[in-house]
Amino acid sequence: MERKIKIKFTSFECNLLINGMNEFRNMLLAEELPTEDVDELLLKIIDKSEH
């Protein structure tokens, strides 16, 4: 069974996390490395931050 963790972030913290993950994704793209896991996590963060 997969363990789920819930964390509450302020809007500022959430934006900081999204920007940092996006920069990491861009670094992976520049090195031609896979980004699927980062993409999935970014989408989850963005989806939850809009509520």
What report would you give on this structure?
- The protein is mainly alpha-helical.
- It has one domain.
- The protein is built from two helices and no strands.
- The protein has helices at 11-30, 36-49.
- The termini are far apart.
- The model has no long low-confidence stretch (mean pLDDT 93).
Q: Topology, pairings included?
A:
Layout: H1 11-30, H2 36-49
Structural class: mainly alpha
* Major sheet summary line: none
User: How much helix is in the residues?
Assistant: 55-70%
Poorly predicted residue ranges:
none
Number of strands: 0
Summed up:
The protein has 51 residues and is mainly α. 67% of the residues lie in helices and 0% in strands.
Q: What characteristics describe this protein?
A:
51 residues, mainly alpha
